[in-house]
Amino acid sequence: MVTDPNEPKSKNNRKKVKLMRDNIIVIGGGLAGCEAAYQIAKRKIKVKLYEMKPKKYSPAHHNSNLAEIVCSNSFKSNLLTNACGLLKEELRRLDSLLIQIADETKVPAGQALAVDREFFSEMVTKKINENPYIEVINQEVTNVKDLLKDGIVIIATGPLTSDGLASQIQELTGQDKLYFYDAAAPILEKDSINFGIAFYGDRYHQEKKKQETKEQWKQRLLQQTKEEQSYINLPMNQQQYEHFCKELVKAEVVTLHEFEKREIFEGCMPVEIMASRGIDTLRFGPLKPVGFDDPRTAKRPYAIVQLRQDDKKASLYNMVGFQTNLKYGEQKRIFSMIPGMEQAEFVKYGVMHRNTYINSSQLLNQNYQLKNIPNLYFAGQITGVEGYVESISSGLVAALSASMHFKGKELPKSYFSENTIIGTLAKYISTPNDKFQPMNANFGILPELEGKKIKDKKERYTKLANRSLEDLLQINN
Ligand SMILES: Cc1cc2nc3c(=O)[nH]c(=O)nc-3n(C[C@H](O)[C@H](O)[C@H](O)COP(=O)(O)OP(=O)(O)OC[C@H]3O[C@@H](n4cnc5c(N)ncnc54)[C@H](O)[C@@H]3O)c2cc1C
Asked: How confident is the model over 164-173, as pLDDT tens digits?
């Protein structure tokens, strides 16, 4: 379902906020902020874009241009059978300025879209500066409350939002709703796990075994209830465990910035550091087998890797206790050594870096609008979307929503169909979730296809991509 953005004027938002200003303010000239500014300007609305550089730099930004790419120069795959590839195609069709410039500044990278980062930022800066509707103001914003008094504001200050503004965001959203780092374990698709090895059950349910006969116990494990399926267990014998630990401590890690080391390690220990403290550390920690018997052998395994259900559909599972700082390629290589995970498809790798983000699952609606302050929107990584392309996509949605709001039109509940990656990401971040964690584009968060599940992944992803692009055709952009 796509909502027509040209629907009749509403009484709704106009009533809530007196919009006296003739412009929309965007704070942060990064990927999300630049896309937002362009989309608003395209709708013939003036924009004031505040960017603190070059007067002030975050610890990871070094270049005076807008839309600086802080790390890898890759915008990931271009294939439609890859969720980030599909998201890029959706954005192309929605006239995203930043994806257009990424295409124009690309460097050879096989099926991926990688950019010449300097050229990319230069081009974005040029396009934004020459747009007659956009005024760039090089100033750090610390007082957003004043800007909100008579107009609409989009905050797109990214994972390294300056401290002054972060404390005001905390004040506006509630002390406990702003997170300062992201220490997340990898998430994988359940369908890629080998259930010839894996078995369902949590410690509590396994403990019941003590009161059952062997036959009763086997029967129960075979007829697991949904609740019991919230954990998947991957048993390891001694040899497998020791080999895994030895490889884990040798694997390549991402180099953290000094500021990240201080903030992250105080709060959370990466699995590879735990493993380096001694061969038994993991098996007495997150890999402890206590309370489990392998239903195939009826014996307690030497160690167990647990996967915990991560989404309502139970299609995604996260690796319990596996917050890690390994490089992505290394995560795939090392974690695929875990018995049952040989063919694991990771929808998200573990990360540990400074990442300021709000608890959007409680605070925002699907238009990236703050529920309790309707003239305040958020966009980019600060909303809990993760990655360059995802940040651009949220900038586009926030801008379309804010533009309609500015023109006094009623905002649809959901701007884009949930069958699109752009729409499903907006839904994901705004759906109540006690364990809210940032999310990147992946097929696991899309609604299932109708009918019987298609086993062949390429065929299934192709169908999901076609469904998304068909839905997108209906939008009157
Ligand atoms: C160290 C690090 C490495 C990363 N590596 C990758 C990667 O390899 N791949 C990937 O996809 N993603 C990576 N990310 C995530 C990446 O930052 C985001 O995907 C993307 O840059 C987010 O876009 P954004 O517009 O939300 O924020 P940004 O691109 O960071 O833009 C925010 C802008 O706001 C400005 N700003 C901040 N505070 C204020 C203020 N108070 N007033 C005015 N301006 C302000 C900043 O100067 C900046 O220009 C990384 C993040 C970090 C921190």
From this structure: 999 999 999 9
